Structure formats: C-alpha cells, structure tokens
Amino acid sequence: MLPDTLQTYLSKCTKSQKGDVLKSIASLTAQDSFENAIKAVESALIHEAYDIDSLINLYTGLNGNIKYPAPLKLDSHIPKLSPIVANLSTYDRGLKLKRGERDE
After folding, report:
1. Tally of domains within the chain
2. What's the rounded Cα separation, in Å, for the pair 9 and 17?
3. Is residue 74 in a domain?
4. Residue 21's domain spans which residues?
5. What's the CA gap between 49 and 17, in Å, rounded?
6. 85 inside domain
7. What string of pLDDT tens digits covers the 104 residues of the chain?
8. 91 vs 97: CA distance, rounded Å
9. Rounded to 10 degrees, what is the CA torsion of 52, 32, 30, 55?
10. In contact, 40 and 28? CB cutoff 8 Å
11. What is the pLDDT of residue 100?
C-alpha cells in the first residue's frame, strides 16, 4: 500500500522513528501533497538522512517553503568597512612544522 520509496526509507529507521516518520508524512501531506512528501523521502534516502528534522528540512527546501528575511538597510552613520583579506601562508607553514621546530 505504501510506495516503495517510503517502505525503503522506513526499513532504514528504528522502530521509534517509524511512527514519527509516518506522523510527519501525514502532516506534510495535509499541508501540501503526498507526492511532495514522497519527493522529500526520496531525497532523504539519497542523503541517508533518517531523522525527522532532516526529512522536514529536505521537504521545506524542495518545496520552496523557505522564508528568507528581508535585507537589512543600514543607517548612514554606520561606516562601510573594507573586507579583510586573510593571509594563511604563515598558518600553513606552521602546520607543516613538527612539534618543537621553528620556522625561519
């Protein structure tokens, strides 16, 4: 009765997770559609994400239900800062040294 994708997903979950997954699928189906909920399950299988939070996040990402905040407008009295350019070559040299050695 359940689609193969959902059966495969449920087989990877623990007993306690199965009930939560089915509740989440029912909730997502009520919000949108069963097909979109199954697309999230397919994506979760690909990513090997068997927890509810990941399933819901994948559903949200796939179905465009992400709400981004509006861009902030800074007041004119806030100074515009120049970007900082990091030079990591010293750090890289330090990683190559053995314990107790000094870079010359």
Report:
1. 1
2. 11
3. no
4. 4-62
5. 12
6. no
7. 788 988 999 998 888 889 988 999 999 889 888 998 999 999 999 988 888 898 888 898 888 766 767 778 888 898 888 888 888 888 888 788 766 666 66
8. 10
9. -10
10. yes
11. 63
